[in-house]
Amino acid sequence: MGVTIRQIAEAAGVSRGTVDRALNNRGRIKPEVADRIRQIAEEMGYKPNQLGRALSMSKNNIKIGVILQAAETPFMQCVLEGIERAKDEVDSLGGTVLLCKIPHISGRDTIDAMEHMRSEGVSAIAMVPIEEEEIKAHINLFVEEYHIPIVTFNSDMEDTKRLCFVGQNAFQCGRAAAGLMGELVGGCGKVAVISGYSSNPSLSNRVLGFGSELKIKYPEIELVGPEYCFEDNHLAGQATEKILKENPDLKGIYMTSHGEEGVCRMLAKYGRAGTVKMIANDFMGKNYELMREGSIHFLIGQDAQIQGYEPVMILFRLLFNGEQPKGELQYTEIFIRNEYTIPENL
Description:
Its main location: other. This is HTH lacI-type domain-containing protein. It is found in: Cell envelope. By secondary structure, the chain is α/β, with parallel strands linked by helices. It has three domains: 5-47, 434 Repressor (Amino-terminal Domain), CATH 1.10.260.40; 62-168 and 304-333, Rossmann fold; 170-301, Rossmann fold. The protein has 13 helices and twelve strands. Helix 9 links the parallel strand 6 and strand 7. The longest helix is centred in the N-terminal third of the chain and has 19 residues, at 74-92. The N and C termini lie far apart (47 Å).
């Protein structure tokens, strides 16, 4: 078997798109990097005509669709950066990536996007699903009837025929938040949960993980909610105000989704910022600023860019040379930060 572009890329510690540019003098690459890649390729016995065959095959056959929901939220904007990076790499190898950005969460719009992708002749789809039976049925239809493999990312649909999932272990994230919250509030009192969408499997699993861990480890904590804000700061503020009025003795809030600014503004309005312990998700938006101010006590993060990049590349590798994903559940690492571990340059 001949040497592949991927093997050269791994040996050189660069992307396959960079290898393509180096071997084909496409520019946009430092001369010293290009020289090193060519030397590695020669040492490995790479035959230049392999690339031509690869590009020809991928250009004729490989078209990947990507459906990104809640595309305007800060987290999904970071996911989008990973998608764009994968798109550039696939494009450089002769393939095509079609991207559909849905600004909100919508089952109907998701199905419409899937059907549009099919009409455009995609060979595979990477998508962020939501918890609706019609979505599940449509995923199974695409895989079984249309033979279009599907990779889910950010949110999963385990009880479907999807190929694999790339993203955070949301249940474990919720458990981690519960452990932190239990210590922050001294193991007792009222703690509220504010989430984005009940139909988002990832957010729902965070809520489930949080509640189940509190019940086991901190049975004296009373769980309030969840309230839903649809990842909107104004609605998150309204939900917080409702919770504070109904629970003046509230000790903590776990925010599972975007909407952190709205929560913190309302806590400040009621003079509760800092005294109501708050845990939120993701290192983006104004979260670091809110943490420096003392409104957020812990942030639980995940690798957003890999959630955009890897699903596209999993499908490209599958379509290009039949390479199966390394596993059904490809969880990204869970990171935890507080005010003392904020990067100095942020």
